[in-house]
Amino acid sequence: MKAPGSTTAVAGATGTSPSEGGERKSINPELWYGCAGPLVSLPPVGSLVVYFPQGHSEQVAATMQKDVDVQIPNYPNLPWKMICLLHNVTLHADPETDEVYAQMTLQPVNTNDKEAFLASDLSPKTNRLQTDFFCKTLTASDTSTHGGFSVPRRAAEKIFPPLDFSMQPPAQELQARDLHDNVWTFRHIYRGQPKRHLLTTGWSLFVSGKRLLAGDSVLFIRDEKQQLLLGIRRANRQPTNISSSVLSSDSMQIGILAAAAHAYANHSPFTVFYNPRASPSEFVIPLAKYNKAIYSHQITLGMRFRMMFETEESGT
Amino acid sequence: MKAPGSTTAVAGATGTSPSEGGERKSINPELWYGCAGPLVSLPPVGSLVVYFPQGHSEQVAATMQKDVDVQIPNYPNLPWKMICLLHNVTLHADPETDEVYAQMTLQPVNTNDKEAFLASDLSPKTNRLQTDFFCKTLTASDTSTHGGFSVPRRAAEKIFPPLDFSMQPPAQELQARDLHDNVWTFRHIYRGQPKRHLLTTGWSLFVSGKRLLAGDSVLFIRDEKQQLLLGIRRANRQPTNISSSVLSSDSMQIGILAAAAHAYANHSPFTVFYNPRASPSEFVIPLAKYNKAIYSHQITLGMRFRMMFETEESGT
DNA sequence: TTGTCTCCCTAGGGGAGACAA
DNA sequence: TTGTCTCCCCTAGGGAGACAA
Fold it and tell me: Would you state the torsion angle of the CA atoms of residues A290, A293, A294, A295, taken in this order, to the nearest 10 degrees?
């Protein structure tokens, strides 16, 4: 068991250490958003949001594969949308796969509270990252057992600390932290004919530790303290299909609806998980965004918000 | 993607193949019971069982770590126990960890149907394995990178095909299927001074593929067709703490209770997952066993069935 | 009987420039 | 500019008996 706080794990701390449960410290938001992709945004804490129980249920149905199509009981007191106050958002990453997700605490509010409605303005506070970063899709050579990672020239010059070109060849040691605050160490060298930037020593441990394959992407961010952050985005592989082994998907569906109905009846807070890369539909959206869509007739009753599909190039 | 049916994967089919979802064919019951441990038994299909919603809820609470202690709504129509007909049992194994679990379809029955009660006799139909098998807890040497697996003499002679002792040294190739029907190939050799049975080539791939550590156990079974089956039992490590990323534990708790209440009200079937190694309490037990306990005053209202703790030696 | 050590030897992998797209 | 190949070298690890618990 490591001490909490900054774990200065030596290079080669294979991320597969199965002993650590949960996250030791809070996830870096820039890195989280980087891994989530350019199209993902979360409503700000304290704002009003619209929660769609049905959309939420669909995310879970998409994550699990439904086993049987048992009828779900009706929840007559459950509306198709609920105006909620977003109390809390915590960012998470699966310790096994580095998959990012968010936990949100919602509290249903009185719908006829006109004041609250007006308070939610349309300030486009894009809490998205503006920091310097680069994202590269891994080639077959990058993930092969022979040799390291070929760093695009522009990317290396923009993100990495400058090399001392008086050395022959110019090289340095890079340290980068992943979502779990593990430190990965790489040898960054500028060599070859023609010259190019490469990550050699340490790279293969990262690839095997994160179980990366050609087609997956890596993401380097230089934060405001000039520290390097390191994330991954996996290619869209099969939907994991974690058949749960804990709860039937029926019970999950029911659980979502019953929890929402209970919270709605009591105006009590409840908790949802939002997995930006797994789900096709957003089920928690800013009230302002919803209102705007309503009033510009872009949405009609029964329609749902759908996330645009990410393109391969996005965020590169 | 492999063809369904018997996949004659070559030795070294690392079980970590992340592409296969679900099981291709039904799990071998003998192997499943072997991996589950000697104290686990499942009620026979078609029999009457007692289902405890609270015990079920506790298993899930034990599997997840509860994040917040939000109050669970009351389900006034939900009794503390439900007599159910066990419609169906399917055996499963987690494709990542090989953890065994069972899926059961239950249907609440009319409690005042005396006839059904009497029909559930106490025939101790122990559907447990009587086949030849051995189970060994892995030593540091067994899991080290240098060398293979030391097979206990009695075990090798009882389970493995006999060696041809005219060879020098006597050796053969063994093939064994795991829970997912993957074939693992090992070189079985009798050598050393003093002589002993060893598994060499192929063993380290198995250890790394299953991510076995010293203290975990392996299990070899010879079935009625003289085929070798191969399973694992992991040492009791930390409770995985899969913080789900899908559903809050509150929603799960609610889902269990609401699903049970719904099924109870409508006499409709519902599905539960039973994880024998994760949960401290059984929540589906044969009605006959329950009645026997009741009538011999071994159980009182409010008590729950608890599984004995397995000892390290059990099943060896 | 079997767990651990050490020794030996080889296969696989890291690290380099060549070469071409 | 950068993806792939091949070559070279070295080390991690498999496979063997020694030895002791």
Answer: 120
